[in-house]
Amino acid sequence: MSIKNFIEKRFQLSARNSSVSSELVGAFTTFAAMSYILAVNPAILGTTGMDKQCLVTVTALAAAIGCALMAFLANLPVALAPAMGTNSYFAIIICAGMGLRWQEALALTFYNGIFFLAISLSGLRKKLIYAVPRPLQIGLQCGIGVFIAFFGLQSAKIIVRDENTLVTAGQLGSPECLFCLLGIALMAVLMIWRFKGAIIGTIIFLTMLAFMVDDSSGERMAVAPDSIFSLPHGISETFMQLDFAYPIKNFSKAAPVIFVLLMLDLLDTMATVIAMGRRTGLMDDKGRMPKLDMALTADAGATIAGALLGTSTTGSYVESAAGIESGARTGLSALAVGFLFLLSLFLSPIINSVPPEATAPALVLVGIMMMQGLSELRFNDMAELLPAMLCMLMIAFSFKISEGFAFGVAAYVILLSATGRAGQISATTWFLFALMCVFLCAL
To answer: Does a structural domain hold residue 1?
Structure first.
């Protein structure tokens, strides 16, 4: 069997109206949008005493394993890596706040992955996703869209912090803002022209331009790398350094933490899979999509592997939407993203030269496109509109997908019950409501 036939049979490119070139373009776009994790994850987890250089390698390896699992088990264009938010919970709440050593925190992450895998294999997690009402599916997709766009605007300093109003407009005439606005305009025009490489092409162009443009401080926005190749650091400092016995010896203290980690992982993955499934057209109106159970299993397996390597929870990334908008439709894209993470260990000088202002336009436009789902909401039904909008706004402005989803579920059940429509709520949705109430109380 030729390589071409193997790829076609394994990833079903023709059935999903895709091609190898479209998948690779999508992979480069997704990687460009989420490669920041190679720098951010070590910086956050490094505060616990873990070796930062080691964590760069661990982050890339965890991402590569997660992407490969998603590719071969679920055939979805969803990339995985150590999850933002959970890594902060790991470092700030578990280690700094509770005083646990990072070895003990890794053990909690590992057991969270084990329970996560058990739930996925049992089919319960799949039933929970099917129990998410359609208005909340729309709210999740649009909320993640606003979240991505808002993050992009912050990266370009178009939106900045303000002591009085929390956020405000930045100096729109600054080089950083003008740079991003130029990228948004160029990318939008290319998208309208249906140029498949619109996103990654604009990122490459902006990166090259950044080598010649000064920022507000008078320094170059990006510095061309002195070299192309570098050797990755070893992982002996963190690999298999978990304190497996800690959760068993300290069950009463460990159990609530594992529960919160499980809920964070569960809800973030549910939200991401639903949003990406809707955007690719693979998820129908009833929340069903092919190999959904395998997608959940891949996510759980990635968390277990990541913990053994030495990082916090590994999860699905909403930045996969950038690759989907560029044409990715199958697991071949996820597999290519994983390969790019491995390659980045040897090409870190080039990867690190891409400034955040170059990827910000992609996040802004992809986020806007994900908000198209709002047109599917029935705006004349407040019991449907309010939960969806509450879910969307909580995700967008709290930067916490899990909490936003939990509030949306709670609002949906309460509003339908209060207006005499409790009969429309399924038994599984009631169970999901109870689970969300416990989760919110445990935070």
So the answer is: no
